[in-house]
């Protein structure tokens, strides 16, 4: 006999008046009633006010346009979609994600109180590894995409405690049999003397780490009275998610603390009784916009273990409840985390409400306008290429002959008067101008200009006439995107990192962590007080400033006169390596396979010490000049000596002449 799951009973008058304090526990029946009642209330609110908005956003994102036909016919009219919203979304996402994950790790920490800096670095090392394993960038990408499309992008943070099995290599020497030569029996089958390594064993390993999971906004529910897009806001009483989970995954929780899993027969019965929600209808509509057909609540496997059950995960700051099929509470415990373990990105907040506006909400009117203008122009072109035929009343011409085609002909007594072709007026000249104006209006709303997002200059904007105007537009876009990143940092990522650290402090297994992180004082990390921070928005601002001002700044810093002045006056010189690092960081480039600056080799150093060819030429010319001067000096000295010699010889001859004259006189 099939198991019978009892339907949920309505709350009694006594239960409606009973106030349970946070320190008191809920019995399973009361927890079931509260969870289902709160979920259905938030589901009604979501279905009434936001699911239709989500479907409209899907229409915009996929550029789906309702097919139209010419009145009174089955001939299709132009139904072209315009991807204005998608263009804006995928112009913002690369900048936002690139700013958040601009470095590895993408976050930093500061010690609080007596915590040491080394302990903070160890905590960052542990969390960085855990975040990589949790696929943090992929989760953030999915959530931010939903935030841009629908306004909010929620995700769940939890801690995974359990076991996993994976094959690991086990070395076993197994002799290899083959044909061997026996001294008595000849060739026989025996041991060849060679061994092989056989590895196949499932090893059990503890799972002890936080996890992140994207939550579709169509399945997420929250207290309708929540007055802020921050889930942890005091006005938010509860939040949760509704998911369809395979029976296999539910059975895997049998040995987990706090879970009460019913028999398999009950689970199969719950799988057959699940009901579709408005969120499922929104998902089905999105598939239809893409040209497909899909029923989210229908199981697509014949394996009974793959049949899915509706699981509602409900959380307040004090309690956590899991309900299966809206009929059984399979988990009912005080909240082990101490906080609502859901977080959410958003795009444009609506004051006093959780649900924010996405890019599709901001650009819907402009996209619809552009679609109407473009499709109207295409319809006009179709009528111009294939104008209507007008014939005089009473003229009998078969309809097949009136249709235009190559080589066609028709008979009429008076063609000039009996048959006319409709003359289409000229197309409106302002259509393209209206589209350009619509583009500019959309960019003003989203803050993403053509210059910053697409690398092209749009039309109709006087700021595009000068380089200064284009730079101003790029800078304004950067400031608005920086504002989005600041919101991500302050209200989502930093609180999430602090919650992550708290989960590690509460649940992390010291022995397992010591094996995974040798040399780290795990106890010190568990007892640390750390403030986690992101500097993505500050880096965006500094990069924009550097990219705009560095060319002029570099001309000043590297000016020879400036270098000489700071060297003589202050005994200093610029750090070229630091300047290179600033350029490297400002351009957003990352080192791959090496550094931007590397040491000189020994050969290069010797070559640097050798004079250049120009210096060698100057030195040779100097030597030749010196040698020439020496030769000239030597020649002048020799001439002077010759002159002295001649003068002395002349004096000697003159003295001998005088002596001879005196002797003759005597």
Give the % helix: 40-55%
- What characterizes the major β-sheet? 5 strands, antiparallel
Kindly estimate the percentage of residues that lie in beta strands according to DSSP. 15-25%
Write down the overall mean pLDDT.
82
Principal-axes geometry comes out as extended
Helix tally equals 22
How do the strands and helices of this protein lay out in sequence?
Layout lengths: L12 H5 L10 H22 L1 H12 L21 H17 L7 E4 L5 H17 L2 H15 L1 E17 L4 E10 L3 E12 L3 E14 L5 E3 L16 E8 H5 L12 H9 L5 H12 L18 E8 L3 E6 L3 E7 L7 E5 L12 H27 L3 E3 L7 H4 L12 H4 E3 L9 H16 L3 H4 L13 H41 L2 H7 L5 H5 L3 E4 L2 H22 L2 H11 L5 H11 L15 H8 L3 H53 L1
Antiparallel strand pairs: 1-14, 2-5, 2-11, 3-4, 6-7, 7-8, 8-9, 9-10, 12-13
Helix pairs in contact: 3-9, 3-10, 4-6, 4-10, 4-15, 10-13, 15-18, 18-20
Describe this structure in words.
The chain is an alpha+beta fold. It is 49% helix and 16% strand. The chain has 22 helices and 14 strands. The protein has helices at 13-17, 28-49, 51-62, 84-100, 117-133, 136-150, 247-251, 264-272, 278-289, 359-385, 399-402, 415-418, 431-446, 450-453, 467-507, 510-516, 522-526, 536-557, 560-570, 576-586, 602-609, 613-665, and strands at 108-111, 152-168, 173-182, 186-197, 201-214, 220-222, 239-246, 308-315, 319-324, 328-334, 342-346, 389-391, 419-421, 530-533. The strands form 5 sheets. Strands 6-7-8-9-10 form a 5-stranded antiparallel beta sheet. A 3-stranded antiparallel beta sheet has the order 5-2-11. Helix 10 runs antiparallel to helix 13. The N and C termini lie far apart (180 Å). The relative contact order is 0.11. Residues 451-474 have low confidence and may be disordered.
């Amino acid at each position: 006999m099939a198991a019978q799951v009892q339907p949920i009973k309505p709350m009694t008058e006594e239960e409606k008046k009973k106030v349970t304090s946070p320190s008191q526990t809920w019995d399973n029946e009361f927890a079931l009633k509260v969870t289902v009642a709160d979920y259905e209330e938030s589901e009604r609110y979501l279905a009434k006010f936001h699911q239709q908005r989500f479907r409209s956003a899907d229409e915009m994102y996929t550029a789906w346009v309702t097919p139209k036909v010419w009145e009174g016919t089955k001939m299709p009219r132009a139904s072209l979609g315009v991807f204005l919203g998608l263009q804006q979304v995928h112009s913002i996402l690369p900048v936002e994600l690139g700013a958040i994950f601009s470095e590895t790790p993408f976050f930093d920490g500061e010690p609080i109180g007596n915590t040491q800096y080394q302990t903070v670095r160890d905590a960052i090392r542990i969390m960085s590894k855990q975040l990589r394993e949790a696929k943090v960038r992929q989760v953030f990408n999915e959530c931010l995409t939903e935030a841009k499309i629908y306004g909010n992008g929620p995700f769940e943070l939890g801690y995974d405690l359990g076991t996993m099995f994976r094959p690991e290599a086990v070395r076993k020497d197994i002799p290899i049999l083959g044909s061997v030569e026996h001294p008595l029996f000849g060739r026989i089958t025996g041991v060849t003397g060679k061994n092989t390594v056989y590895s196949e064993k499932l090893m059990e390993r503890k799972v002890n780490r936080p996890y992140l999971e994207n939550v579709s906004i169509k399945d997420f529910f929250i207290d309708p009275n929540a007055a802020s897009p921050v889930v942890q806001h005091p006005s938010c009483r509860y939040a949760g998610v509704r998911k369809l989970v395979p029976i296999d995954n539910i059975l895997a929780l049998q040995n987990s603390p706090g879970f009460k899993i019913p028999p398999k027969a009950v689970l199969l019965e719950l799988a057959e009784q699940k009901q579709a929600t408005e969120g499922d209808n929104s998902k089905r509509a999105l598939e239809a916009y893409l040209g497909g057909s899909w029923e989210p609540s229908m199981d697509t496997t014949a394996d009974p273990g793959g049949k899915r059950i509706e699981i509602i995960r409900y959380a307040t700051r004090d309690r956590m409840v899991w309900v299966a099929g809206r009929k059984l509470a399979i988990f009912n415990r005080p909240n082990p985390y101490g906080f609502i373990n859901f977080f959410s990105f958003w795009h444009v907040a609506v004051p006093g409400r959780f649900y924010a506006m996405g890019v599709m909400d901001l650009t819907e009117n402009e996209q619809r306008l552009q679609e109407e203008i473009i499709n109207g122009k295409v319809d006009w072109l179709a009528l111009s290429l294939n104008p209507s035929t007008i014939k005089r009343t009473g003229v009998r011409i078969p309809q097949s002959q009136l249709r235009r085609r190559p080589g066609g002909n028709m008979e009429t007594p008076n063609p000039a008067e009996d048959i006319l072709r409709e003359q289409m007026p000229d197309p409106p000249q302002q259509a393209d101008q209206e589209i350009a104006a619509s583009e500019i209006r959309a960019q003003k709303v989203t803050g993403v200009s053509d210059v910053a997002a697409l690398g092209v200059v749009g039309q109709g904007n006087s700021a595009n006439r000068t380089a200064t105007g284009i730079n101003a537009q790029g800078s304004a876009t950067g400031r608005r995107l920086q504002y989005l990143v600041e919101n991500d940092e302050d209200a989502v990522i930093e609180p999430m990192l602090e919650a992550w650290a708290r989960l590690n402090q509460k649940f992390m297994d010291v022995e397992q962590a010591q094996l995974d992180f040798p040399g780290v004082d795990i106890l010190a990390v568990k007892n640390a007080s750390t403030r986690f921070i992101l500097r993505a928005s500050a880096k965006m601002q500094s990069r924009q400033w550097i990219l705009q001002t560095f060319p002029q700044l570099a001309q000043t810093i590297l000016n020879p006169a400036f270098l000489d002045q700071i060297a003589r006056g202050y005994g200093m010189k610029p750090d070229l390596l630091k300047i290179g690092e600033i350029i490297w960081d400002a351009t957003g480039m990352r080192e791959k396979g090496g550094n931007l600056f590397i040491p000189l080799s020994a050969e290069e150093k010797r070559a640097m010490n050798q004079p250049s060819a120009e210096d060698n030429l100057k030195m040779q010319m100097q030597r030749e000049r010196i040698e020439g001067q020496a030769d000239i000096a030597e020649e002048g000295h020799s001439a002077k000596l010759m002159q002295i010699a001649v003068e002395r010889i002349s004096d000697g001859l003159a003295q001998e002449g005088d002596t001879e004259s005196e002797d003759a006189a005597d």
